[in-house]
Amino acid sequence: MAGNFWQSSHCSQWILDKVDLQRERHVDLSTLTEDEYQKIIVFFAGFIQTLGEQLKLRQQVIATATVYFKRFYSQNSLKCVDPLLLAPTSIFLASKVEEFGVISNTRLINTCTTVIKNKFSYAYNQDFPYRPNHILECEFFLLENMDCCLIVFQPYRPLVQYCQDLGVEDSVLPVAWRIINDSLRTDVSLLYPPYLIALSCLHMACVILNKDCRSWFADLHVDMSQVQEISKYILNLYELWKSFDEKKEMSTVLNKMPKPKSQQQPSHPQMPQAN
Question: In 3D, which of 122, 121, 89 has the Cα closest to residue 108?
Fold first, then answer.
């Protein structure tokens, strides 16, 4: 495992360009509006979070799974693999990479079935359609698409270090931690280094709690324009949430989402065409 972000595949291969990211979405955005696309990503990030909590996974595992999910769709259309299959596959892979321990296929499938029935029935009116062999096949496909670059550096560790330095572990840390969790529903994990995401979430938490940390930030000598860009992504998410009635809208949005040709036969997730 790379012990240093700057020497890792995360840094060298998975900090993407905003223009390139938007260009890769052109197929989906020919069917969906930008808002609808973001709602789908927000929905499945929430699904991964709920699934992870039901499986009693550490937040680090859930965050890594969410990043895997987003990395895949940064290079592929939603019609390549059903997100409902990729979401638990991302959890399955992340649990191994983060050394949490392998989740049994049976437990994973059963938990998916329970979560959909109890928490997401407003979006899906039928049982979870996939079986263990689908997860295993999709895992191989996910690994191939990420070129086996599995190490993900998260913002949580630098956030804790910054809060210790500021002496605000008890007050600011819990708020900033929750903002990082929210940031997983945006594109920031694909576009910015984790230490900048941590700084942005810390800055937002300080503003929310009226903590004056301006002199501390001034001494950091970081690019505050990037910190502000990250904050804007997160604030845009909060604006989206204000007008997004997920329980009423999601079924319609999912029906509009581009589907794999093999949707009726989920044992064959489609391989994306080579560029």
Answer: 89
Q: How many CA atoms lie within 13 A of 258 on its CB side?
A: 18
**120, 169: one domain:** no
| Contacting residues for 166 by C-beta, under 8 A, at least 6 apart | 172, 202, 213, 216
Angle, CA 85 vertex, CA 58 and CA 272 arms, to 5°: 120
* Domain end (from 116, 151, 186): 151
In this predicted model, what pLDDT tens digit does every residue of 202-250 receive, in sequence order? 999 999 999 988 889 888 888 899 999 999 999 999 999 998 889 999 9
Exposure b/e, 217-233, CB count within 10 A at least 16 = b? beeeeeeeebbebbbeb
Last residue of some domain: 151, 180, 214? 151
Q: Name the token pair of 115.
A: 């979560």
In degrees, to the nearest 5, what angle opens at C-alpha 50 toward C-alphas 48 and 55? Answer: 90
Same-domain check for residues 41 and 134: yes
For residue 50, the one-letter residue type is T
Q: Is the pLDDT of residue 83 over 60?
A: yes
How many domains, in total, are found in the chain?
A: 2
Domain that holds residue 161: 156-243
Q: How far apart are CA 211 and CA 101, in angstroms?
A: 39
Query: Which three-class secondary structure state does DSSP give residue 96?
Result: helix
**pTM to 2 decimal places:** 0.91
In-domain check, residue 262: no
CA torsion sign for 208, 211, 213, 214 is: positive
Quickly count: other Cβ atoms within 10 Å of residue 70's Cβ.
24
